[in-house]
Amino acid sequence: MRLTLVVIVLTLLLPICAHAQVQFGIGARAGILGYNQSEIDTNKLFWGAQARARLVKYFAAELSYQRRTDNFQINRGNIELVTKPLELSGIFYPLAILPVSPYIVGGTGWYFIDITVRGDLGLPYITGEGTLSLTEHAPHIGVGVEAFVGDHFSFGGDVRKVFLSIDNQLINYKLDAYFVNFTATYYF
């Protein structure tokens, strides 16, 4: 049944894509990542890059990468948390005929997390120095807006809810994570 549905959708989209002009863009993004909804306004900006391919004016695919570093002082120790999200998203522009167009975004992401402990945290079972690296996979959904300035430049922003949970031998924690992104893209 799924294979039949995929074949039908591809058969309908292929003629549209054959006549479509693909518009490819690259750009910079600044973001705020909140591990829970209440901390979203207390975070600093962190930077990254994105690539977008717009198809049929109403649809786009996006690949983005960002990096964030946080330091937490606990007793006489330090925990450095480095989060590197790599997201693959699909974007739908319902009002693509307008120069300022809202969009709906959804996709999946891989979240590379490095936790480095230094010093005495005063916690049981955690001693010495070391780094724990995790890779978690999580879907995301969101809404945003993109505004074109001429034929090649766009500026925009979006809010994405990330359904991220860390589940391994040491940590079992579900995060209420949110991304707020600001983008600038140059389309070729």
Tell me the β content: over 45%
CATH topology-level fold name = Porin
Uncertain regions spanning at least 5 consecutive residues: none
Largest sheet: 8 strands, antiparallel, barrel
Q: Tell me the radius of gyration.
A: 20 Å
Q: What is the chain-wise order of helices and strands?
A: HEEEEEEEEEEE
How does this model look, in words?
- This protein is mainly beta and 188 residues long.
- The chain has one domain (21-187): Beta Barrel (Porin), CATH 2.40.160.
- 10% of the residues lie in helices and 65% in strands.
- It contains 1 helix and 11 strands.
- The strands form 2 sheets. The protein has an 8-stranded antiparallel barrel. It has a two-stranded antiparallel ribbon with strand order 9-10.
- The longest helix has 18 residues, at 2-19.
- It is elongated, with a radius of gyration of 20 Å.
- The two termini are 39 Å apart.
- The mean pLDDT is 83.
